[in-house]
Amino acid sequence: MSVYDIEELEQHYERFDRKKLVRMLSYLKPHRARLMLDLGLMLGVTAINLFEPVLIMFIIDNAIKNANLPLIYQLVGLLLFLRVLMWQVNRWHIQLLNKTGQQVLYEMRKQLFDHIQSLSFDFYDGRPVGKIMARVTNDVNAIGEFVNGSVIQLFTQALSLLGIIVIMLTMHWKLSLLCFCLLPLLATFFMFIEQRMEQGWLRVRHQDSAINAHLNETITGMRVIQLFSRQQLNAQKFLRLVNKRIEEYLRVCKIEFFFWPVLELLGAIGTGLVLWYGTREYMAGKATTSSNTAVKSWHPRVYGGETHRGGHLGLPPVPGQVLAAPQCL
User: Fold this and answer.
1) How many Cα atoms are found within 13 Å in the side-chain-facing hemisphere of 199?
2) Domain count, the chain
3) Which of the chain's termini has less CB crowding within 10 Å, N or C?
């Protein structure tokens, strides 16, 4: 067995370092051509998403108001065509992204495996094999998920948010400013809770590696354990590790469960403000039905109508888990 206690090995991990993020992104450099093509596909999807409310606004103003059925059929057909096109572009995007992501994971694992083979005897004497296995498998997968998925998604969602802001301000600046008034509060809340989510998932990963280390040492040293009749003590230690992991997991889940309802609440407040002020502007003749409809359709994309898929403020999905992985490696 290793000469160090399992929990003592986790004390030196620090909070997320931006330099490590740059190091993670360096794995994407050999795949710039594929990533640029994938980025172009995502920009196409973003453009279609931004154009749909404008098309709906045009249908209301120029087709429905004038009772022009042929024009309605044509524009609805165009809307359906854009949906099918967006589905196909998304399909190409997923295929290209998965292919690039698997290549990045291959290169990352190969480099890590070569590095492991070059380490000294002292490194292996001081660390359980199960802990090393957890680093090579679980944490590499989390980093790969961030590098080949969240990076492009972060960029495209940020660009989409910028496009929505510009279009909404051009269409009706007063209603748009009212829609954006809660964004500073939302950003402040996210920065406040993001650190706690990251630290929570870091503790969960520490417990996962501790359980793997204990299991590995138990299986490899089973003869010694049975020889000295330490089965009961070993089982008690394992239960302590599992219970600690459950406690840490439930703790971080409470933080995330608090995050999403607050996000939904802010979005609901923003929707109420938009509907209230939009109705007043319409009754005063300062806004049209189409402009109110367009702003209402864009509003959830700003405040998190797609929150559980990471569609708010251009934020990557599950940030705490992917930011905790580099600290372990």
Assistant:
1) 10
2) 1
3) N
Q: Which two tokens stand for residue 320?
A: 């705490």
Q: Is residue 227 part of a domain?
A: yes
Q: From first to last of its 329 residues, what are the pLDDT tens digits of the chain?
A: 444 444 444 444 455 556 766 777 777 788 888 888 888 888 888 888 888 888 888 888 888 878 888 888 898 999 899 999 989 998 898 888 888 888 888 888 888 888 888 888 887 776 777 777 777 777 777 776 666 666 777 777 777 778 888 887 887 778 778 778 888 888 888 888 877 887 888 888 888 878 888 888 888 888 888 888 888 888 898 999 999 999 989 998 888 788 778 888 887 887 788 788 888 887 887 777 777 777 767 666 666 544 443 333 434 444 455 555 555 55
Q: Single out the residue of 154, 155, 150, 157 nearest to residue 49, CA to CA.
A: 157
How many Å apart are CA 269 and CA 273, to the nearest integer?
6
Q: In whole angstroms, how far apart are CA 265 and each of 29, 178, 253?
A: 40, 16, 19
Residues 6+ apart with CB under 8 A from 321: 142, 201
Answer positive or negative: Cα dihedral of 16, 158, 153, 275: positive
Q: Which domain holds residue 63?
A: 7-328
The first and second tokens of residue 142, run together, are 């989390």
- The amino acid at 271: T
Is the entire prediction scored with pTM above 0.70? no
d(CA 164, CA 140): 35
Is residue 1 one of the residues assigned to a domain?
no
Q: What single letter denotes the amino acid at residue 157?
A: Q
Q: State how far the Cα of 187 lies from the Cα of 192, in Å rounded to an integer.
A: 9
* Angle at alpha carbon of residue 128, lines to 122 and 129, rounded to 5°: 100
130 residue type, one letter? G
Whichever domain contains 220, its CATH number is 1.20.1560.10
